[in-house]
Design brief:
The complex is a heterodimer of chains A (435) and B (399).
Chain A: H1 2-18, E1 38-42, H2 44-47, E2 53-54, H3 56-59, H4 63-71, E3 90-91, E4 94-100, E5 106-112, E6 133-135, H5 154-157, H6 168-173, E7 179-183, H7 187-194, H8 211-226, E8 231-235, E9 254-256, H9 259-268, E10 279-281, E11 284-286, E12 294-296, E13 302-303, H10 309-314, E14 328-329, H11 331-355, E15 358-360, H12 362-371, E16 373-375, E17 378-380, H13 399-417, E18 433-434
Helix pairs in contact in A: 4-13, 7-11, 8-11
Chain B: H1 19-23, H2 37-40, E1 52-58, E2 62-69, E3 76-78, E4 87-94, E5 99-106, E6 110-114, E7 127-142, E8 147-170, E9 175-195, E10 201-208, E11 211-223, E12 235-244, E13 247-255, E14 260-269, E15 276-281, E16 291-294, E17 300-310, E18 315-324, E19 342-354, E20 357-368, E21 371-375, E22 380-398
The chains are: A alpha/beta (435), B mainly beta (399).
Chain lengths: 435, 399
């Protein structure tokens, strides 16, 4: 029986020792870059702006903040963000909810976030600085260099040490960064697009930044940021005309359900050759290049998400009267935007190559997203709401979108500097929330 | 102890149908040790001694799977699998010199894999429990003193329960979830040939049929934010089909000395029958298509060796080992049924307190070889490692 006891005891020993399967942990490496002082410069996409506002819980999942969290694995230093004081924030935040339209139909869609603006969101938080997330909503490339930009833009003004004299670049350089990311330039073309491109009233047009001017400013920024030998990541620009803001309301959003109205419209527009039928119809849009100052929209026209849709349903927009020009990007305007973005991207890529910096191709990433992305069993696309990447303003990303962006950044940094910064689990970040 | 389910072996096959066999590398096709031949080789039932033999056993499985997401990532996870409890009950007796009858109740397939509800693979699976119980009456015929042939009819009960997350979130961030549950019964058979060319040598060849579980009207419950309930009907049902694969098995054993007998088994398992797991929902919506999940398993094989040594009238000791090849392809590795090259190391003993009674103990350690794999249809990949510790106890009685 001694042998039996011995066997039983040994078995018990093996049992205790080997019950749980274990794997070695992944060990991240910094490669040749020093992440100890990390600053990030950019616009609203860097700030964590989402759903039409800059608000606290969205900032906490900004792409910059997610990246900074991963840099902690490889020696990343403090990363502080100029957080808003609440989730109302500054802007006009939207959530998904039910709203009843002018036809009495209750539908799920973006509605205004309940609550009120707290002026504390505008109060200076400069004393708690310095901050490392220097993404400032609204900023164009030239703004990062502009002294006193804080007195024009409250998003910078609230954390600038001296809003009247600071520039964002100066604020960054005072911290002597060892590593930076720069994602700037989208607003240089987006401002034009958000206003529907060209306008009969030139004062209402926000011009696209000239490519030469863009290149000069961009080069100046990169020269400054790398002057002390800092390494960094330059991020190019996606084709903004592919974002949900320009691709959600269809060109044929005029839904006709009444034959009398169809007949009436056919009669009224007979001389212009516009025809109507029951079901979806192309909107009639303002177009000064046409003799009548209007035409029927085509699939090449992009109707902006900002169009008041009740005006189409109940106020005769697109049928009895043309949709105002500032809610439409026509083919020419779309091309103006795309050409600018492509030219800016050449400058960005050249700056990355010339300075040995990492380069994230978000233009390619956005194209990939258009055809669909898949992470851990979840499909993503650029479709508004259901695509899962964009926030409810149709322009900015939600937490999952930011996590996807952060992973692209990590890939680019790893590739350039031989690092193995760990990627994040995309689905662990907040996305669209349904009631 | 509740009869729960268990995780084991080539995908979700369980090899634990007899304590004596478990002790020696799970061999038994050509190595007759008792009424468990109802499962291992019904052809050899006619060679059992005595008029009636009974046996019963249970093998609690303590299994775990560790996961590390594909690099670069520091994400890792581990299962918290409940103890699995495959069991077996056998009776075999002689009708006359030529015919024997047998009955077995055993659990050849099952798995229970429980990941954390919020783990990174939650949209593929959060937890799944597959369970099967086979009831098999058998008839064995002695063709000659050297040849025995037997067949068994398998009446199988199968049950599946699974939960997975749905990628939609409520205002508080809570994600949707699907809970599916269904059970069914099906028929199959096994057949075996036992050949004893000499007193020392035994050979066996068996075939087990694939048993296809056709699940109908299983319950499918969806918990989603209220505004999406139209897209995910809360009370839905589903049909699904799950094959429990058959196999061809070859085995032999030889009495090397008076006290030492050793043998091997070779199994070829028809896992390629398991092409995909399709959930056909009764109510479909634009957001809820039927769910087609390719599995594309391939046939696998198992090589088992083992032996027993008779120490005394009261004590027999056993040892063995096996090699179980993977059935799951590297690109179609779903975390619901972890699979790997598995190495099994076994030992066991029989203690005989009285002439007619055996107390059988077994112990099996399964080491899954680390695998870098992905489930391509979901783009979910990483490194998995599986292991299991399976003690077992059984009793046999000869009348």
């Amino acid at each position: 029986m001694k042998s039996l006891k011995y066997i039983l005891l040994s078995l018990l020993g093996i049992l205790m020792f080997s019950c749980e399967a274990e794997l070695e942990e992944f060990e991240p490496k910094a490669g040749s870059a020093d992440f100890s002082v990390f600053v990030t410069l950019g616009n609203s996409l860097t700030a964590g702006f989402a759903d039409g506002a800059l608000y606290k819980s969205a900032q906490e999942v900004s792409a910059a903040s997610i990246l900074a969290g991963q840099l902690e694995w490889v020696g990343g230093g403090t990363f502080r963000q100029p957080l808003m004081i609440d989730d109302y924030g500054l802007g006009g935040r939207r959530i998904l909810g039910f709203a009843t339209n002018c036809l009495g139909v209750t539908e799920l869609g973006p509605i205004m976030y309940p609550g009120t603006f707290d002026p504390g969101n505008m109060a200076s938080i400069a004393a708690e600085g310095p901050y490392q997330n220097l993404g400032v909503p609204g900023a164009k490339v030239s703004h990062l260099l502009a002294p006193g930009y804080g007195s024009l833009n409250p998003y910078f003004g609230r954390f600038a040490t001296d809003p009247a004299t600071n520039s964002i670049l100066q604020y960054a350089m005072e911290q002597v960064p060892t590593f930076f990311t720069l994602w700037i330039g989208a607003n240089d073309a987006l401002g034009y697009a958000l206003k529907g491109g060209e306008n009969p009233d030139p004062t209402q047009t926000e011009p696209i930044t000239d490519v030469g001017e863009f290149t000069t400013y961009y080069t100046m920024l990169v020269d400054n940021l790398t002057a002390n030998g800092a390494k960094g990541l330059l991020v190019n620009l996606g084709d903004i005309t592919s974002i949900p803001f320009f691709n959600t309301v269809p060109y044929n959003a005029l839904a006709l359900t009444d034959q009398t109205l169809v007949d009436m419209l056919n009669a009224a527009y007979a001389t212009l050759g516009f025809t109507f039928q029951l079901g979806p119809n192309p909107l009639i849009i303002q177009d000064l290049n046409h003799p009548a100052g209007m035409r029927q929209a085509t699939a090449k026209d992009k109707i902006l998400l900002s169009i008041p849709q009740d005006s189409i349903r109940c106020a005769g927009w697109g049928s009895l009267k043309p949709v105002p020009h500032n809610y439409v990007l026509d083919e020419l305007e779309v091309n103006n935007v795309r050409n600018a973005i492509n030219a800016y991207n050449l400058a960005i890529e050249a700056a990355a190559n010339n300075n040995g910096l990492a380069y994230a191709d978000m233009n390619a990433a956005l194209r990939d997203a258009e055809s669909g992305l898949l992470f851990d069993g979840v499909n993503f696309s650029t479709t508004f709401v259901t695509g899962g990447i964009f926030s409810l303003d149709g322009v900015h990303l939600n937490g999952k979108g930011n996590a996807i962006v952060a992973n692209y950044f990590i890939e680019a940094i790893n590739a350039e500097y031989g690092a193995t910064i760990p990627k994040v689990v995309v689905n662990d970040y907040p996305g669209v929330l349904f009631p | 102890m509740a009869i729960s389910s268990f995780a084991f072996a080539g995908s979700f096959q369980v090899g634990l149908q007899g304590q004596k066999q478990t002790g020696m590398g799970l061999i038994g096709t050509g190595f007759t040790v008792g009424p468990s031949s109802v499962f291992f080789n019904p052809g050899s039932l006619v060679f059992l001694e005595g008029n009636l033999q009974l046996s019963a056993g249970i093998s609690p499985i303590f299994s775990s799977v560790a996961f590390r997401k594909e690099a670069p990532s520091v994400y890792h996870a581990a299962t918290d699998n409940p103890m699995g409890t495959p069991f077996s009950l056998y009776a075999a007796g002689k009708l006359n010199d030529k015919l024997s009858l047998g009955l077995g109740v055993y659990t050849p397939f099952g798995s229970s894999t429980v990941w954390e509800d919020d783990w990174a693979g939650r949209y593929l699976i959060q937890n799944i429990s597959l369970m099967s119980v086979y009831v098999q009456p058998s008839l064995s015929y002695k063709i000659s003193d050297k040849w025995g042939f037997g067949v068994g009819l398998v009446y199988a009960y199968g049950k599946v329960e699974l939960e997975k997350a749905i990628p939609v979130s409520g205002q508080d961030g809570t994600e949707g979830q699907a809970s599916l549950e269904g059970s069914t019964t099906a028929l199959g058979f096994n057949a075996g040939l036992s050949f004893r060319p000499s007193e020392k040598l035994e050979l066996g060849l068996t075939y087990r049929s694939t048993v296809t579980m056709e699940m109908e009207e299983g319950d499918a419950k969806f918990t989603v934010p209220a505004s999406l309930e139209g897209n995910f009907p809360p009370e839905n049902t589903f049909n699904a089909s799950l094959p429990l694969p058959g196999s061809v098995n070859l085995g032999a054993s030889y009495q090397i000395t008076e006290k030492f007998r050793a043998g091997f088994d070779f199994h070829y398992v028809f896992w390629s029958e398991y092409d995909s797991l399709n959930l056909d929902f009764t109510q479909n919506t634009p957001a809820l298509d039927d769910s087609r999940n390719p599995r594309l398993l391939k046939d696998n094989f198992i090589i088992r060796v083992g032996g027993e040594y008779t120490l005394s009238d009261k004590l027999i000791v056993r040892a063995g080992a096996y090699y179980d090849s993977p059935a799951v392809e590297d690109d179609y590795y779903s975390p619901e049924t972890p699979d790997a090259i598995k190495i099994g190391l076994t030992t066991g003993l029989t203690y005989r307190p009285m002439e007619k009674l055996d107390v059988d103990l077994s112990f099996l350690y399964v080491l899954g070889v680390e695998r870098d794999v992905t489930y391509a249809p979901a783009d979910f990949g990483g490194t998995y490692k599986y292991n299991a510790v399976i003690p077992g106890i059984g009793f046999s009685y000869r009348f």
